[in-house]
Design goal:
Number of strands of chain A: 11
Number of domains of chain A: 2
Oligomer: heterodimer
Largest sheet of chain B: 10 strands, mixed
Number of helices of chain B: 11
Number of helices of chain A: 21
Distance between the termini of chain B: 31 Å
Largest interface: A-B, 49 and 60 residues
């Protein structure tokens, strides 16, 4: 038995430090943490790392291998020291005034492995929906990005108001905008359920619904070192069992179900006899409670393999289904009636005609809608870091199974030409980092001009807000009846949405961006390389 | 329109306008337009130098900064910081010019010099990338955010035709001196953007202007409050693809600067430098007709300087 330092305290310090930085990364509006730091900070997050490895590869995406190795060595260390949702649940349980007295529960193996199997089936079928709802990393990201961030903004704004009374402009107001209420509701509901469960039953989520927990529990059955109860020292006082938030210590049989143990080490410290500690699991001839679990191990593996085969079969048919359904792309914001563009009446009807966005727009660096949806876990880190608030969780843009995966919401903001932050921070490879010059040509959508909604045409007054904001002048103004009317050149449009955002017509815009299901490379505007010209005048022209 | 034709027409219009409006401080109507050093200048134009250098010369000719900024006063400087682009692209006011204005104000004894803009691109990126944030801080001024509605207070515009009220940044309302520092640029919707148009950056809801006759709204807002000084940066002039610009190919190095207490006069002179006739620019013409200022340069006492 090794017990020199308190492993519980090591775990607590590591977990709390990690958690604080994690939380800050998901609520910060000042881009304080550099993308490079965030990449390495999120390195050990299992799900994003695995997806990024499949998608992009590279050393920065090997975090999940490290977690697997760690699990094969010492069990589910990830679940208590690194998993943000695990730490979050521990904090929730901890802030109870009256400490919980846990008791042993039988494992809900059918539930946890079925959940895992379903997550895999969905993923194979091309939808990360279930994974996204249940993945602990992404779930925690949403708790902070969706729910805590507005509170943080509010606190900041109160402080700004307070400083304002001293005429200080040291801090500034921030606006929490664009978040759809439905998205907020989904995140809030799931969080509420989780909080209640953690409050009452400790880590029940981790051993029943968490796909990462289920996968690591399978691996932890093979761990080289396992926590075990020394039967010679055990007095069956039951203290360890009451402290076990995973409810995995059965004091009657003096056994510890290591597959459910989240490696919090509370039991080690609770045992007055020093009867619990790590033990080499493959020592010869050990009469060890682990054996009891081992006997059922084979059964689990058989069941699981069966499930995986089934999953693959179902997955294939689902894939076929999904592909058939996915052809139309995402749904737009309403049915279009662009056909009657020519019917322009004299009274002000600017902005009264709905547009037909054929496909939603995915962030630059996502390459295609399919690539994006197959890798994004909806952690909302990009939503937090985006300086223009253009990246927002989707509700129905990608259909129900794309719920909360972000899209470019041009009513909330537009993609800043000089910015690559979303791709720089994305931990799953759904948005890949682009060099600034590449990003400036990444065509994520194409501009569509809806003449029947345009102020200039309908009200016959100058406007031009669209062209004003366009960074490539894909939207430019041409003379029309003594006024200037917009015209568009799709070839040099990058789909940033500046025109759509700036367009002042309501409720519908006169100009909008239709998403490129496959991103393209925009042409460069003409004579970009010329320098400034010299002025040939030698006197004031007045 | 040829320039001579314009001058004839302009003179006619000017005579009428002068007769109707009795434009304040209008110089001779004779059209000779020789500077009269005995009287204060309506407008000073400088060419051939660096922005800060030209400002020093221009403000000296205007009677020195002390004429506009008194000791202990608070000053708000409003450059164009609309775009997240570097100095070299000429979409924002020259940072060296803004810094020199801040320095001069502080030297004149200003208590505080604030600088802000309601930007088009993300505000803090514009502040940083334009070079203005660093320049202002080094000069001793303070950058102030204008990114959320909280900073803007409702004012009424009694003389406005379409624009009757607007939310204006609290700094404009609270500061003693207001210095308007536009950069001369091509503008896709307003043709040019100079002093009058730059004031769109002190209000919150610009979409309303775009929806309700942009040129009229710009002129309407000009009737609300005259800046104490207008300094037009015409150093790097974006002659097409404005107001954001695409590349340096959009620029002409005009190395000029205009300074005036009259926004309309400053806009008229700057339009000429740009290559447009002021009477062809909707909002300048309307502002002139509404009595915001005088676009007839022939009627003004203008000092022309070279560096």
């Amino acid at each position: 038995m090794l017990k020199t330092v308190s492993l519980r305290w090591v775990r607590r310090i590591v977990a709390l430090t990690y958690f604080i930085v994690f939380a800050f990364a998901f609520i910060d509006f000042s881009n304080t943490l550099s993308p490079g730091f965030i990449n390495w900070f999120l390195y050990p997050q299992f799900t994003p790392s695995l997806l990024k490895f499949i998608k992009v590869g590279g050393i920065v995406a090997t975090g999940f291998v490290a977690v697997i190795l760690l699990t094969l060595l010492f069990g589910r260390v990830y679940c208590s020291a690194i998993c943000p949702l695990g730490i979050f649940q521990d904090i929730v349980a901890r802030i109870r005034l009256k400490r919980v007295r846990y008791k042993f529960l039988k494992p809900w193996n059918i539930i946890r492995y079925t959940t895992l199997a379903l997550v895999v089936i969905f993923a194979l079928a091309g939808s990360l929906f279930l994974l996204n709802m249940l993945d602990p990393y992404s779930f925690t990201g949403r708790i902070f990005s969706d729910l805590v961030r507005p509170i943080y903004y509010g606190a900041n704004n109160l402080l700004v108001r307070f400083l304002g009374t001293f005429n200080s402009y040291a801090l500034h107001h921030v606006e929490y905008r664009g978040m759809p209420w439905q998205g907020l509701l989904v995140t809030a509901s799931l969080t509420l359920i989780l909080v209640v469960a953690a409050w009452r039953w400790g880590r029940i989520y981790c051993n029943s619904f968490c796909p990462v927990g289920a996968l690591l529990s399978l691996l932890s059955r093979f761990s080289i070192f396992k926590l075990a109860i020394d039967e010679n020292a055990c007095t069956a006082c039951g203290r360890c069992s009451r402290e076990c938030k995973a409810s995995c210590i059965d004091i009657k049989s003096r056994s510890l179900d290591f597959s459910r143990c989240v490696a919090c080490y509370n039991c080690i410290d609770s045992c007055k006899e020093g009867g619990i500690g790590y033990k080499y699991a493959y020592a010869k001839k050990t009469v060890d409670p682990i054996q009891q679990v081992d006997s059922s191990r084979r059964g689990f593996i058989a069941t699981f393999t069966g499930m995986m085969v089934g999953a693959t079969l179902v997955g294939k048919s689902l894939t076929a289904l999904a592909q058939g359904k996915g052809k139309g792309g995402g749904r737009g914001r309403g049915r279009g009636n662009q056909a009657d563009n020519n019917d322009v009446s004299q009274e002000s009807t600017a902005g009264h005609r709905p547009n037909s966005r054929l496909a939603p727009v995915t962030p630059p660096g996502s390459y295609s809608q399919k690539d994006f949806l197959n890798a994004c876990t909806a952690c909302h880190l990009c939503v937090t870091v985006c300086p223009t608030h253009v990246i927002q969780p989707s509700i129905k843009e990608y259909g129900f199974f794309g719920l909360l995966q972000p899209h470019m919401d041009y009513h909330s903001g537009f993609c800043n030409f000089e910015c690559t932050l979303c791709g720089d921070v994305c931990p799953t490879g759904a948005i890949r980092p682009l060099e600034l010059e590449t990003k400036k040509r990444a065509q994520i959508g194409k501009v569509k001009f809806h003449l029947g909604n345009c102020i200039v045409r309908v009200d016959r007054t100058d406007c031009g807000a669209c062209s004003e904001h366009c960074p490539t002048k894909a939207v430019y103004m041409v003379p029309w009846q003594g006024l200037l009317l917009p015209e568009v050149n799709e070839d040099i449009c990058i789909g940033c949405g500046a025109c759509e955002y700036a367009c002042p017509t309501t409720p519908y815009k006169a100009i909008y961006v239709n998403g490129n299901v496959e991103h393209q490379v925009a042409d460069l505007p003409e004579d970009m390389d010329d320098g400034p010209r010299e002025w040939d005048a030698d006197d004031f022209p007045f | 329109m040829k320039r001579r034709d314009f001058l004839k027409k302009g003179l006619g219009a000017g005579l009428m306008a002068g007769a109707f409006l009795k434009v304040n401080g209008a110089g001779t109507l004779a059209g000779t337009n020789k500077p009269n050093p005995a009287k204060p200048y309506d407008l000073v134009a400088v060419m051939g130098g660096e922005p800060a250098q030209m400002f020093d010369k221009a403000i000296a000719a205007m009677g020195g900064i002390g004429k506009f900024v008194k000791s202990g006063q608070t000053v708000v400087v409003k450059p164009n910081i609309g775009w997240d682009t570097p100095e070299e692209l000429g979409a924002n006011t020259n940072p060296g010019l803004v810094a020199r204005i801040v320095e001069q104000c502080l030297k004149a004894g200003a208590k505080d010099v604030f600088v802000f803009d309601n930007t088009c691109d993300t505000w803090n990126r514009c502040y940083a990338n334009s070079g203005i944030e660093d320049a202002v801080k080094n000069a001793g001024g303070k950058m102030v955010p204008g990114n959320t509605e909280n900073y803007y207070k409702l004012v009424s515009i009694p003389n406005g035709k379409r624009l009757k009220e607007a939310k204006v940044h609290e700094l404009i309302l609270n500061s003693d001196v207001f210095i308007n520092v536009p950069v001369l640029k091509h503008h896709s919707s307003a043709k040019v953007t100079i002093a009058l148009k730059n004031l769109m950056g002190i209000v919150w809801d610009r979409r309303f202007w775009h929806r309700n006759d942009l040129h009229q709204c710009i002129a309407d807002f000009g009737t609300w409050r005259k800046p104490d000084l207008n300094i037009v940066d015409a150093y790097r002039v974006m002659t097409r693809n404005g107001p954001r610009g695409v590349s340096q190919a959009d620029l002409v190095m005009k190395r000029s600067l205009i300074i005036s207490t009259d926004m309309v006069a400053a806009d008229a002179a700057a339009s000429r430098i740009f290559g447009e006739e002021p009477s062809e620019i909707g909002h300048i013409k309307i502002a002139h007709e509404m009595g915001v200022g005088n676009m007839n340069l022939d009627e003004l006492n203008i000092e022309r300087l070279r560096v």
